[in-house]
């Protein structure tokens, strides 16, 4: 299909060893990963107030966007020449364990209006969805905070404005390579406070629970809520940022759209509780550290960098 990214051509040095066994180092890393304990920080919500009609429109608009020719997706700047909205694969991957067989459009919410001239139907649908899911994210964050603190807090309303949040529309093309070592999205934790995810009915999302990968069965009436790194640090470990991944599918494509509740770059994250597990840090510092680790090692280190 002309719309698919040239994964095999671009990353042929990685795929050359697909038919071989994983190296001892990779096996050891995978065994350590699967042996880590995990506490639940991912759940589904129903009666969330976002209609099936808007979710169906979001998927329809996603399909039209992703089904454009690959070269058009790469070259199109959506009227903002300084921003690259489209991403695919992993430029810094040095092994198959670091490679994701997927493509995505990252959309800062304060950029949605720019898309009107490009595609008014798409921008209108995205804007409507973003407004509704933003309200839902704030409500869920408030409930979790009150449950933890014992009183209502306006922390998230003050620090997580729409201008600092974003959407990510993802597509996972069929993967023709039969290998358990290739993921649609590599194992990771999210670097925000909360992620709200709508996935289609194909399936493939898994979370690490009690050292095992557990599939998240699609529910057309539910949205998935995922606790991020910042919430884990802010709650002093009371809420856990869960490692998750997406597995590949050999026959069908998968679509999802995620909303990421993020603070402004200058917002400081400080543990609510004693003794504090993590030192105080800004969101800017956290993102920079994650980017540096991924660039230098191919992997995200995350919160362990900020332990007291």
Describe the model.
The chain has 308 residues and is α+β, with helices and mostly antiparallel strands. It has one domain: Sandwich (Jelly Rolls). It is built from nine helices and 13 strands. It has helices at residues 7-10, 12-15, 24-34, 52-66, 70-75, 120-149, 155-159, 229-234, 283-297; strands spanning 42-45, 86-88, 103-108, 166-172, 183-188, 194-199, 205-209, 212-215, 223-227, 244-247, 254-261, 268-269, 281-282. Strands 1-9-6-11-4-3-2 form a seven-stranded antiparallel β-sheet. It has a four-stranded antiparallel β-sheet with strand order 5-10-7-8, with no helix packed on it. A two-stranded antiparallel sheet has the order 12-13. Helix 4 (52-66) crosses helix 6 (120-149). The relative contact order is 0.16.
Task: Quote the CATH topology.
Answer: Jelly Rolls
What is the overall silhouette? globular
Distance between the termini: 50 Å
The biggest sheet amounts to: 7 strands, antiparallel
Radius of gyration: 19 Å
Strand order of the largest sheet: 1-9-6-11-4-3-2
Number of domains: 1
- Would you tell me the overall average pLDDT? 86
- Total strand segments: 13
According to CATH, what is the class? Mainly Beta
Which structural class do you get from the secondary structure elements?
alpha+beta
Organism: Actinidia rufa
GO molecular function, one term: oxidoreductase activity, acting on paired donors, with incorporation or reduction of molecular oxygen
Keywords: Iron, Metal-binding, Oxidoreductase
Domain Fe2OG dioxygenase: 161-263
